[in-house]
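Methods: example folding runs. The two proteins below were folded one after another, and each record is reproduced exactly as written to the output file, sequence line first and structure-token line second.
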Amino acid sequence: MPKIDPNLLFFGNFVDGSSRLNDLEQFREHAEGFLQRERIYFEEEAHPDIEREFLPLFAETFPPILHSSIIISTAILLEQELRGFSNALIEALNLKLKFNDLSGSIFEKFRTLVSKVANLSLDQTAVRWDDTIGLFEIRNCLVHAHGQLSEFQRASTIRAFSAKYGTPECDDSTMTVDARTSQLALEITSTFLEGIYSLAIERFPGDYGPLRKRLGAV
């Protein structure tokens, strides 16, 4: 089987990842529109005795569930892209190893492969590395600790993220995500993907690149 041109491989992977991220962005926009319409209905049109009593339940319960699902889906996409990028890099460089041969978390494996094995200059500021780690820990807390910071070992990472951006809201024991958190998750992931794929396309020049700021047309 002929080997795929690395420039084409990385550009194609970038387009695929960006398209899936755009799908999540569009879903979020539609969901936010639905929430706003429902709020207006409950506040202005709902029967005062029969329906309006459900407004607090709707406002407090449904939005966090929705935005949690977007954050979790975005983190899943991010993890898939980390693995996909790593496997493409291994293939492009004809490396005699597998991604899982590396030690540490998925981010530690990725950084080792990119910086130490492939000798690529990963600018952690440009790709918002710390923010990306924070996003992943928010996802982990939602999935494994139901948003309970008191039960999550890396709560300090989330609190630092919250202090920087004002979201998610954190009290002594609980983390609460909202529309700002899910929007930020998408923005961070977009920057990260553009950063790593720009690095790869610069390393493997060809017909595609350099990447510009990701647009909806990508």
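Second run, written to the same file directly after the first:
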Amino acid sequence: MAKSPVEVNLIPIEATSETFADYGQIIEASRDGETFGPNDAQLDLSRGTPRLYIMPLQDTSFGFSKITHHANVTQCLGSIGAHVWYVGVAKPSLIEDDDERREDTVESKSGHLYAPPAVEEVRVFRISGTKFVKYNRGTWHVGPLFKESSMDFYNLELTDTDVVDETTYDFRKNNGSQSFASIFLWFTMAKSPVEVKLIPIEATPETFADYGQIIEASRDGASFGPDDAQLDLSRGTPRFYILRLEGRSLGFSNITHHANVTQCLGSIGAHVWYLGVAKPSLIEDDDDNGRRVDALESKSGHLYIPPAVEEIRVFRISGPKFVKLNRGTWHAGPLFRDGSSMDFYNLELTNTNEVDHTTHDFKKNNGVIFRFDP
């Protein structure tokens, strides 16, 4: 008996320069007279004759099983009228001449090599307003998808893109077997965030080492050593104060880093509290990461890479100890239960909250929120 395809429900993510960086660029309006820069579309039209035209489309379903890539061009698409539309995407998987050939390598009809996209890597993005999409060469994509009766798009590609450079992967056909149903992906316009459940990790010097230090009580008279907080307060005037917080839910969608200070936090009363974290992703002056397309500039001028959903952890801090966060460590909290209040001692700089507070919004940029149980 034929198997019905498994339906995978995707949650649309709002397309921004940050959220779309793995797939290409989101280009927004620039001022007249501005010089060319990294926020402009970085095009590769060198493999043929460019073609810019208006593409009329009829309304489409909010579901798909096929996804396509172009190996020879950085295609650009934008809605004429700045309507709301959607695209399904997966990261490029072209295998270049100097790449190691994989077991699952496939040769396209046009002769280039690629690895098939994985179901779990497919995302759907929502594009709205006066902006357009530039796909990286080889980005898997489906769409434009929309619910209007018809919509016109400007389309920049090559004259022969549709004829010789359209490689399609069929999830329904290629992901089915005698044991498993095939795959059909769909989504709705509702933008309810996906809830990611985290398991708290007990904070110890060993478990917290990637993010900073856990400092426990030391004997009176003990000399300074590696188990003491290794502080960097050199970029401003230190501020040590008591921070009073009201009870917060055991969940978060925003996460923050400070680029100029090794912040320290501890509960007065040695109560149990929690902290969401991700590893620092600052780009220093001598760091090669500065060439990454997903690098962002903060309001204070430093460069960083946005944190990834899969890198978020939650730690449980209990007893007479405090946390020292490495410079640039992403953090959310302190978090603790019910409506009571809790006091924390906090060591940072006098201007940390004003000029050194860079926040990433996972709900807006990634379509997820984080929850955990105590």
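Comment on the second run: The chain has two domains: 6-192, 195-372.
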